[in-house]
Write a structure and sequence with these properties.
heterotrimer; A mainly alpha (about 120); B mainly alpha (about 775); C mainly alpha (about 140); B: about 775 residues; mainly alpha; 4 domains; two-stranded antiparallel sheet; about 70% helix; about 0% strand; elongated; C: about 140 residues
């Protein structure tokens, strides 16, 4: 199963990067989401995956007595998921605002380098 | 002590909000800062004169060996008193000189900052700390030199000064770190023990070269001297402060401070004698061709700095004592001359020596100050300058071999020229007939003429009664340089010997030169013909070339297309990581622990992959949004399978909210554009897939490493025992790593504020239209 | 989205979802759940209501603007973070009452911290979504 997840991560990264390289702003945003999902899964997988043993201590015990899933990547990913919502919201509003200003979804319309700045 | 050093920083920070209060009459009050510091340091004179040194130690970054480690010995005390003493006078002077200036508060903030950095520099007993203050002086002097920031020349000069001193500082840092690394300590006092080890080390010449580079750029030694005349664009009080007692003396201080550790070898002596010798002659020679008062002073300052470096290079007892004496002599008369020039400029509106004359009739106290300072710089008997000159000749005469003749004649010629320059500034404007246009000139506020007069009088007083400062100040300073006690009282009268004869010759020839030669703009033109050979032209060319290169580089690499940047970054990452993987040996899959594959997992994965490709390839936004959310929900299922209920819940809710977000915004955006042509798409696919493949391979490599679960074990064992919680993920979030979570919610809040402000901003912009 | 069924359902769903979100929040220290998830669920409850009744109606129902929740939550979390300092203990030390409370278990500073997170998350999500809904029209 791990091998399949590795392939999935590779696919998420590849498609995420591909979308980032598009000129359309919306595609850029979707690429960001895909890349974020890939990174979350990567962290999750590197913490080793375990079935049917959530990191919750048994109600009778004081600490783990059996095999359990690693809580650290889970805590990391949980914050990452929530933060990514903030990021997406900000990015989407930013794109929206840019769209209103330049009336185009094409990133190339956004910035042609201004000669006088150089 | 820490407070004394940092007081200037506090004041400069306080002046940001409170500056308005001090713009008017209250500006004088800021002078209490340097004055009280002067009193504080002066209270140490008896202790230091007894040959003691006082250390102050405050830990700062002990793990890096950087501590607030200050040490007050004779050399530091001499410099501290100069910095705060002349500082007090400059602060007072400026309150009148820049009266009503728009940015007077800013001026004092920069000046306080500069003074604090300078104090830290001379008191630091840790080379890293010293370096930090060294850089602070560069930065604060940048602000001071460019104080008239509306003037393009002024900005250019301050940039040049920063570039030269900053570049030297960079090399100095390398030298100091090398030194600290080899000797195993960054404390200057402890480095003394490593002195012989350092001198024998094969890297000793390299260390010296780096440190010399720092000192030479700071102290304006040839060929790095050119920033100093440019720095004259600053208001005169600043020039007086920077070029008499502080900024440019920092390099000299550094050499003096490091002399006991690194000095005394051939590698030390010859470069310093040669560079110092060239500089002192070059500066003195140039000064006599100038007609602008401040230019003359600038070049004579360069020459004086050359003399100091030269003396430290010679390194005999007499030479070092001469250096200590000359530091004080020069600071007194040069500050006095600068301040005098400032008044002339302020009252007559010109600094052209050819136009000024006869001003003694209207500015008598100032004329006295100028005359006394000029006499001191000329080294007339009964002035402090006389003793300084004496000491220099003593030092050059007592060198070995053929050196006495060469060095002494060089010193004599330099001194003749310097004497001429001093007379030109201190005497010429006041002598002769008063031109009619200056009849109405009147004496300025007393705060402007007393400081130069006071300094000049001190020069005379110390000269007539050297006992005032001999044992108390100068001997301890020289002792600190030699690192052994010695006692050589300054004498006014050595009897009829060679030194006196040389002094006489210097005086006579200098006076003769002054009487014979009339400064004119023609002489200025004659020297400008050789400008193309001057270092600052080469430097200027170099700077322009760098700027052209930067512009070209920017045009090609930073073309403003996001995807081009991304493409390059990712391509580079692929190449580097790919190379590493390729050379790292064969990639194998060592199945340490593999979970079995079940049907529903495969099904979820299949849906996931299908959704991903649908997202990428669809041209409908609705499909893309739906497919993206399917990806999210599938990942949520994966979390469920692999024992992460918290993650599953979070992913589920966030995914739902993301869909809402997209629905709210995305449908008001235009349909997907397919702007790239086929070739571009293939190229991007190639890059993206190779990046994905590399990530996958790296993941496999990482999975092969044995898993280190020490941290997770700790959390697992202590979650209930220490934090009384059983959901370990939640315990990590709210207890063990609670501060991280705190910052996370802060970041979220910032995102919300960002969204709100972006949207409201839009509303306003459209309102305007 | 103005279907009558959904409209009616959302009226009843709002309190149920809110109750559920508080349940998730409080059990977080012992079972899966916690401030983040709880806050998100509560936010979804309000978003659902706003979908069917319009943003203005939901804002009216809330009485205070959600952006006001952000500083409240931050303050709560910060207070529970720095409270141990009053006792002379380092920041973030857990403080606990001795007697356990039914359902929630022991009450301690970590719980208040989690409640702070809960409030901030609701505030942030609703502020973002409602502002977008209001201004991007």
């Amino acid at each position: 199963m791990e091998l399949l997840l590795v392939i999935l991560i590779g696919v998420l990264y590849a498609t995420g990067i591909f979308m980032l390289l598009r000129r359309s702003m919306v595609k850029l945003l979707i690429g960001l989401i895909l890349l974020g999902n890939g990174a979350n899964l990567l962290i999750f997988l590197l913490g080793r995956i375990t079935k049917g043993a959530p990191p919750v201590i048994d109600s009778a015990a004081k600490f783990f007595t059996d095999v359990y899933a690693d809580p650290i990547p889970q805590a990391l990913i949980l914050t990452a998921i929530v933060i990514s919502f903030g990021l997406q919201a900000f990015a989407i509003v930013l794109l929206k605002r840019v769209y209103v200003l330049i009336n185009s979804d094409d990133l190339d319309d956004l910035n042609t380098p201004e000669e006088e700045d150089i | 002590m820490l407070i004394a050093v940092l007081a200037g920083l506090f004041v400069s920070v306080l002046l940001i909000p409170l500056g308005r209060l001090f713009k008017g009459r209250l500006a004088v009050l800021i002078s209490l800062l340097p004055t009280s510091l002067f009193a504080y340091f002066a209270s140490f004179i008896p202790t230091i004169a007894n040959g003691e040194a006082i250390s102050f130690h405050y830990p700062w970054v002990p793990s890096l060996g950087v501590d607030f480690h200050f040490r007050l010995d004779g050399l530091s005390l001499l410099f501290s008193l100069l910095i705060t003493g002349i500082g007090s006078l400059v602060f007072l002077y400026a309150s009148s000189y820049l009266k009503g200036h728009r940015y007077l508060d800013r001026f004092y903030a920069y000046l306080s900052l500069f003074m604090a950095s300078m104090l830290g520099l001379v008191l630091a007993d840790n080379v890293l700390l010293l370096f930090i203050f060294w850089e602070l002086t560069s930065i604060s002097s940048f602000f001071l030199i460019g104080f008239n920031n509306e003037d393009a020349n002024s900005r250019k000069s301050s940039l040049t000064a920063l570039a030269v001193t900053g570049g030297g500082g960079f090399l100095l840092m390398a030298g100091l770190i090398l030194m600290g690394h080899l000797s195993g300590t960054y404390a200057i006092q402890e480095m003394l023990n490593a002195s012989s080890f350092l001198k024998a080390h094969p890297w000793y010449p390299a260390i010296l070269a780096l440190i010399f580079a720092g000192a030479f750029t700071k102290s304006a030694q040839f060929p790095f001297h050119f920033w100093l005349p440019g720095a004259m664009k600053a208001p005169t009080p600043i020039s007086a402060y920077l070029h008499s007692a502080t900024m440019v003396k920092a390099g000299v201080y550094l050499l003096a401070r490091l002399y006991p550790i690194l000095g005394g070898t051939e590698y030390w002596t010859y470069p310093l004698i040669v560079v110092g010798g060239i500089t002192m002659f070059y500066g003195a020679f140039h000064s006599i061709f100038r007609t602008d008062l401040k230019s003359i002073l600038a070049y004579s300052t360069i020459s004086a700095l050359g003399i100091l470096v030269f003396l430290i290079g010679i390194g005999t007892e007499q030479a070092l004592l001469a250096a200590a004496v000359f530091i004080l002599v020069h600071a007194l008369y040069k500050a006095s001359l600068f301040l005098t020039t400032g008044v002339l400029d302020h009252e007559t509106g010109t600094r052209e020596i050819t136009q000024l004359g006869g001003l003694r009739k209207v500015l008598l106290p100032l004329a006295i100050a100028g005359l006394l300072a000029a006499l001191s710089s000329a080294g007339l008997p009964f002035t402090f300058g006389f003793i300084g000159k004496d000491q220099i000749y003593e030092a050059t005469l007592h060198t070995e071999g053929i050196m006495p003749i060469v060095l002494t004649s060089l010193a004599v010629i330099t001194n003749i020229l310097l004497l001429y320059a001093g007379l030109l500034v201190g005497l010429k404007p006041f002598a002769g007939k008063l031109p009619e246009r200056y009849q109405a000139v009147h004496l300025p506020h007393w705060l402007m003429w007393t400081p130069p007069l006071l300094l000049a009088l001190m020069g005379i007083a110390f000269g007539a009664f050297p006992a005032l400062i001999d044992a108390s100040l100068l001997n301890p300073a020289a002792t600190a340089m030699i690192n052994e006690t010695f006692d050589s009282p300054l004498k006014l009268w050595h009897g009829f010997n060679l030194v006196l004869l040389l002094s006489g010759i210097t005086l006579a020839l200098g006076a003769l030169l002054y009487l014979m030669r009339k400064p004119s703009s023609k002489s200025m033109a004659s020297i400008e013909r050789f400008n193309y050979l001057a270092p600052q032209y080469i430097f200027g060319k170099l700077a322009r070339a760098v700027r052209r290169f930067a512009a070209r580089y920017t045009r090609t690499l930073h073309n403003g297309f996001l995807r081009v940047y991304l493409f390059r970054i990712i391509m580079f990452a692929v190449l580097l990581l790919g190379f590493r993987l390729f050379t790292g040996g064969p990639i194998q899959w060592i199945p340490a622990h593999l979970s079995p594959i079940s049907v529903y997992e495969v099904a979820v994965l299949g849906i996931l992959i299908a959704a991903i490709f649908l997202t990428v390839n669809t041209s409908s936004r609705l499909t893309a949004v739906v497919a993206t959310s399917v990806i999210g929900y599938c990942i949520c299922l994966l979390f469920v399978f692999y024992s992460a209920p918290d993650l599953a819940m979070t992913q589920f809710t966030i995914d739902t909210l993301t869909v809402v977000l997209f629905v709210l915004v995305l449908f008001r955006l235009p349909p997907f554009l397919n702007l790239a042509n086929r070739r571009d798409r293939i190229r991007d696919w190639l890059l993206a897939s190779s990046f994905g493949a590399i990530i996958a391979l790296i993941t496999i490599q990482a999975m092969n490493q044995p898993f280190d679960d020490a941290v997770s074990k700790f959390y697992g064992e202590n979650a209930y025992v220490l934090a009384k919680g059983k959901n370990v993920v939640n315990v990590i979030l709210v207890d063990f790593r609670g501060i991280d979570t705190m910052f996370e919610v802060v970041v979220l809040s910032i995102a919300a504020i960002g969204v709100v402000s972006l949207l409201k901003l839009k509303l306003k912009a459209s309102e305007k239209e | 989205m103005k279907s009558t069924i959904l409209k009616t359902a959302s009226i009843y769903l709002l309190p149920i979802l809110l109750l559920f979100s508080i349940f998730i929040l409080l059990r977080g220290h012992y079972f899966p759940g916690g401030g983040f998830v709880g806050g998100l669920i509560a936010a979804i409850a309000f978003v659902l209501h706003s979908f069917t009744h319009g943003t203005e109606a939901t804002l009216k129902l809330l009485r205070i603007h959600p952006s006001a929740l952000i500083p409240v939550g931050l303050a709560l979390a910060a207070i529970s973070m720095f409270a141990p300092m009053l006792n002379g203990q380092p920041v973030m030390t857990g403080l606990w009452f001795d007697q356990p409370v039914p359902v929630i278990g022991l009450i301690g500073s970590a719980l208040f911290f989690d409640i702070g997170v809960y409030v901030v998350v609701i505030g942030v999500v609703l502020t973002i979504l409602f502002t977008i809904a209001q201004y991007s029209g």
